[in-house]
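pls read this stuff:
=====
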Amino acid sequence: MSGYFLKNQTAAIKEYYDAYGYVVIQDAIPVEKITAFHNAYEAFKTSKNYYFLSQDTNQIEKLEINSQGFIEHSILNPIDLVFQNTFNQAALNIITLPQVSQLLTTLSDRQQHIIWQTMFFDKSTGTVAHQDHYYLDSDPPGNLIACWFALEDIHADAGAFFVIPKSHKGKLITRNANHDHFSNHEEYVSQIQTLIKEENYQPQAMLLKKGSILCWHPYLIHGAFPNQNPQYSRKSLTAHFLPEGYGRLGKNLPTQISSENPDILVWKKTIIERLKASIRHFRFQTKYHFRNKKTRAKMEMRSSEYEEVVN
């Protein structure tokens, strides 16, 4: 299948990524690492009155299990959840695999990479079409690398991840510096939808097999289709990596420390920062119960909240 490679096909992987803006590496995650994550996930689901920041709503959400047994909302930065060390480590053990760092080096020609942002999806929340550059990118831009880790076989009705091949070579829609905290996000989503329509871009569903890794360029338009059958989950992790030698666009670069893999680094968090995170978690419950649930967040990512061109 075009765009799908094995991890030792380094030259072909790099060539395809540069040409199409994405690439898939099959059989890249050991089964035992996925099994360990699933075990940690099952334990995590039993947490009572647990609150976290969600990627899909960009608001505080409560850990809710739907009637199919899946976590309803995606989780932003699962490797940093307070009081969930087993779950955090299981996710980190996949994201920092040696084969991941080798793949990143193939794509960037840099030895080390820093984990900037991570996500966990149990079910597809239907993500708006977008370019990562609007939200986060390297400085100079265009060098961030994103990876999507398939933790199960992805069914066509599960709300598959999609890409628009070669769109990284087309128009780039940037964030206006005058709009702080993504205050023009709705306008941005509309601009992307208009661009897709004008260019007659065709989204390509990525029905990955368990253990596959999808990587893409920060200018590539991508997203996720809405779930078509609630019995299907779409268990996956996402990580954004900053190659060594680059800054963060519009942000300072925190101190890094190495993970168990010295070629993949994480942000250093001081004791005070960890203490603040713990206190903040207890405040999440109050914020969750008193927020206006009908008010859309400034950076709502669920495609169901917009009139999407992609379908």
Observations:
- The first helix runs from residue 10 to 20.
